């Protein structure tokens, strides 16, 4: 069976509040390729810095190319549009610092108000060549200030990284053990839904115990993975058989830990089988009880139908009437037949 098939779910520390555990699990279980930044959602400062650097690099390269090929006029157009567009986007971004947003609005408004001066040749014919670079410097300042002051927050699974265990934290060879526990949890969850109000198995307490066991087992498997890697490294780097002899007890401990974990997983799996059998028995009882409850309808129907076996006077009267009608019909048919025969026997003139 491939690793993808038996890949376990992330496990969150049961000591955390349930709502927080659900948020952490939902964030951690979402594939990286499908995580979309919602409107207004804060991103990491490193990502914001990287995006700002790429933006400045693109504007700066375009500005240099425009100044070398077309002169200051096109450079002013590019620098002004870039600055105004950035401060406009800054104004609607919720995580931006209010002070930086206000300064950006003032700078953007000034750049927009100054645009007619050079658009309609109000400036001297040879304006300062550094004017586009002044606007670009303002853009650099706004990007830097926004990056350093924006309200950023780490995703829940990063902030509580020590309270969540991902599949990568557990050896692939041990994934099957954790999957078996999680499959049992799924069975008990389904049983709770099916039993509904008649939860004679106390599945609520069962799920609480199973999730605690899931966290304990996942924690042991994660620690075992680290210790196993350290043991293998020491074994491979051992310079003599004596060193490996000293390492032998560590290997014995690792084997014993694996055996203990497997025993507990087997116990949990057996509990899951008992829950499945109990749910099946409950389903059978419900179906039998439903059949018994509906038996009166079948009994009444049969009792009513049994009256059909008694000869009915009304039906007998109808039968006598039909028989009389048949005799009259046969009499008239015989007369018609005789008349036809008589006509056939008349001599032809």
Give a topology summary.
Layout: E1 11-12, H1 18-29, H2 45-69, H3 72-92, H4 98-119, H5 131-149, H6 156-159, E2 164-165, H7 175-195, H8 203-237, H9 241-293, H10 295-306, H11 313-345
Antiparallel strand pairs: 1-2
Description:
- 74% of the residues lie in helices and 1% in strands.
- It is mostly helical.
- It has a two-stranded antiparallel ribbon with strand order 1-2.
- The longest helix has 53 residues, at 241-293.
- The model is unreliable at 32-43 (pLDDT under 50).
Nutshell version of this structure?
With about 350 residues, the chain is mainly α. The chain has eleven helices and two strands. The chain starts with 10 loop residues before the first strand and ends with a helix.
Q: What is the average of the pLDDT values?
A: 78
Count of individual helical segments: 11
- Helical residues, percent: over 70%
Contiguous uncertain segments of 5+ residues: 32-43
Give the total of beta strands: 2
Main sheet strand line-up = 1-2
| Biggest beta sheet summary | 2 strands, antiparallel
| Terminus-to-terminus distance | 107 Å
Q: What structural category do the secondary elements indicate?
A: mainly alpha
Rg, alpha carbons: 44 Å
- What general outline do the C-alpha atoms trace? flat
Beta-strand proportion: under 5%
**Helix-strand pattern:** EHHHHHHEHHHHH
